[in-house]
Amino acid sequence: MRVLITGGAGFVGHHLIHQILERTDWDIVSLDRLDTSGTLARLSEVLDENKDHLVQNWKDRLQVVWHDLKAPVNDFTAEKIGKVDYIFHLAAGFISKNPHNSSTVRIEGVGSRRRGFGSPPETASGMMLSAFSTFAP
Questions:
Q1: Contacts of 52 by beta carbon, 8 Å cutoff, 6+ apart
Q2: Rounded Cα–Cα distance for residues 61 and 25 (Å)
Q3: Domain holding 85: CATH number?
């Protein structure tokens, strides 16, 4: 099983990645724009928890791809993501002065991911979740 997590370096996303790595044998693609709300430090902490385990190396199962979902997914990014079986859409850009930006990533990003990623929309299942940006002013 191969899953895509948008916003994987964010608060909710990195916890989901940790649970998937710990409880399954799934491969994960984390798609994130890596700004102040999503940082590689969070993912590094998750991977560090597993560094002494000999059963499997979590680093081999996690791929990080940079992309801002306010832009269309181009061929290069789609190729890096590849075919996925399930999509967890957690990405949300929260900018308090312009709450529309959050909606753009949350809603338009869904269409972007379905059109541009390696799996046809009819074959990849998805789930959209949110931490707090849904409740923006």
A1: none
A2: 8
A3: 3.40.50.720
User: Kindly report the CA angle at 10 between 105 and 127, in degrees rounded to 5?
Assistant: 60
Q: Tokens 């199962």 correspond to what residue?
A: 61
pTM over 0.90: no
In this structure, how many other beta carbons lie within 10 angstroms of the beta carbon of residue 1? 11
The one-digit pLDDT tens for each residue of the chain (137 residues) are 999 998 898 888 899 999 999 899 999 999 988 876 667 788 888 888 776 665 568 888 999 999 888 788 888 988 999 999 988 888 876 555 555 454 444 444 444 444 445 454 445 666 555 555 444 44
Which residue's structure tokens are 């902490």? Answer: 45
Tell me which residue range forms the domain holding 66. Answer: 2-135
